[in-house]
Automatic annotation (TrEMBL):
Residues 148-282 form the Cyclin C-terminal domain. InterPro entries: Cyclin, Cyclin-like_dom, Cyclin-like_sf, Cyclin_C-dom, Cyclin_N. It comes from the Eukaryota. SUPFAM superfamilies: Cyclin-like (SSF47954). The gene is Ccnjl. Residues 48-139, 177-253 form the Cyclin-like domain. Transmembrane segments: none annotated. This is Cyclin-J-like protein. Gene3D superfamilies: Cyclin-like. Keywords: Cyclin.
Length: 366
């Protein structure tokens, strides 16, 4: 069992560098995302739906990210009705799980229908329609599902995320294992929210994964923020990552503020329950979501200032967009639910998606 598990962890094997290079080569040929979908306002709803479904099915991060990426590309090309999008979302999840998971972990039809009912999705799936939709999706992607996402790189980069010479709050690290485990949680936190905003699709997947590691080091106040070893492994310098990191830290700061506001509301409404909750979860919360002054950024302040100039409007618009009220339900499917959309980019991108081909419309009709 241990040997099988190690073979699955390609990032620890002898061929890790070759596999990484192959992924980097393939990502150069990824389709260009244009944000042309007329339904882009509902994108966040379907991302949350796919995330919930993949979690319920215990799918790996690469399967979840691939399913979301397939849906993004398909929505970007065609004008699709909401009902059709639900069926396409399930088909994307099935294709991604078949490509990334073992056969016994691929969701069964009955399970998917049960999940659809639990999520209040007014769709009843059947094997024939799902199969036809999968075939149409495969034809649309030219039968190529080997599409690298940030999730395909993150574990490889995490292997060198912490070094013996790194400092934590200016002091030598006593337990590399504990710090590495905590940093991994941060990295996956940034990785998961990167799919919520289509703006991140303008970055290469490998760059997003590298930025997740660097942003995690900054939040944990590990210096230097970006090491020579990480730069050599990822082939990205600080200058390459600065814009993506800036956007991630903006999101992180707003997430901290919202969590603090929710905590205050809970304290006011349920003071006794909140006190009990603090006793049991205080340590975990402080470790994973501690306030950070981002001291490691100081060492790159001059470089970051120069690099930010061309993207100042982008980051400013992005920061403003994050001030919008977040929906109370993770599946609140309204046009405003895409809370992380970047106004500066959307203004320059006009929806011009094609109408769904007749063959696909026929396949999706009840």
């Amino acid at each position: 069992m241990g040997r099988t598990r190690m073979e699955e962890q390609w990032w620890k094997g002898e061929l890790a560098a070759d596999i990484h290079q192959t992924l980097r080569t393939k990502e150069l040929k990824l389709p260009v995302y244009k944000a042309h979908s007329p339904q882009i306002g509902m994108r966040r709803y379907f991302i949350d739906l796919l995330t919930l479904l993949s979690n319920r099915c215990n799918l790996c991060p690469t399967a979840r990210h691939l399913a979301i990426y397939l849906l993004d590309l398909f929505m970007d090309r065609y004008d699709i009705t909401v009902k059709q999008l639900h069926i396409i979302s399930f088909a994307c999840l099935l294709l991604a799980s078949k490509f990334e998971e073992k056969e016994d972990k691929v969701p069964k039809l009955e399970h998917l229908n049960n999940l659809a009912y639990m999520c209040n999705v007014n769709v009843v799936l059947n094997k024939k329609d799902l199969l036809r939709m999968e075939m149409l999706l495969l034809e649309n992607f030219n039968w190529n599902l080997c599409l690298p996402t940030p999730a395909h790189y993150i574990d490889y980069y995490l292997c060198v995320s912490i070094g013996e010479n790194d400092l934590h709050n200016g002091w030598p690290i006593i337990s590399l294992t504990k710090i590495r485990d905590c940093l991994e949680k941060y990295a996956y936190y940034f990785l998961d929210f990167s799919v919520h905003d289509h703006t991140f699709l303008y970055f290469r997947p490998s760059l997003i994964a590298a930025a997740c590691v660097c942003a995690s080091r900054i939040c944990m106040q590990i210096s230097p923020a970006w090491t020579t070893q990480l730069e050599l492994l990822t082939c990205y310098s600080w200058e390459h990552l600065a814009q993506c990191i800036e956007m991630m830290l903006i999101y992180y700061e707003n997430d901290i503020k919202e969590a603090s506001n929710i905590k205050k509301q809970v304290r006011i409404q349920h003071p006794e329950e909140e006190a009990v909750g603090n006793l049991s979860h205080q340590a975990t919360t402080q470790v994973l979501f501690q306030h950070s002054s981002y001291h490691p950024l100081a060492q790159h302040s001059a470089t970051l200032s120069q690099f930010q100039s061309p993207v100042q409007d982008l980051c400013s618009a992005y920061r403003d967009s994050l001030q919008a009220h977040r929906p109370s339900s993770p599946l609140a499917g309204s046009a405003d639910s895409s809370r992380h959309s970047c106004a500066a980019l959307e203004a320059s991108l006009r929806p011009s998606a094609q109408t769904l081909p007749i063959a696909m419309q026929v396949a999706l009709e009840p």
